[in-house]
Specification:
alpha/beta, 3 strands, 38% helix, three-stranded parallel beta sheet
Length: 84
Amino acid sequence: MKVAIIHLSDFHIKSWDHFEFEKIEGIVSSLNTLGKVDEYIIAFSGDLANSGAVNEYKKSRFLFGHLISKIKQKNNNKFLHHLY
């Protein structure tokens, strides 16, 4: 079984920034270099939000949901673990 641990840190998401989707796509496309992976584990450390505003945390939750969904699609909808 091949397991990939994806460690992400310090996104500093801003409520007004629209470039995060490009970052998510870049993360997902970089996983192609790993070949076939049976399971993914995402660990996030550091700051999610830039200033701690409620809308930044809401956007963070949405973006991480999008990232998890994209990785699941890549992995035949298999479950993956996430820690944050």
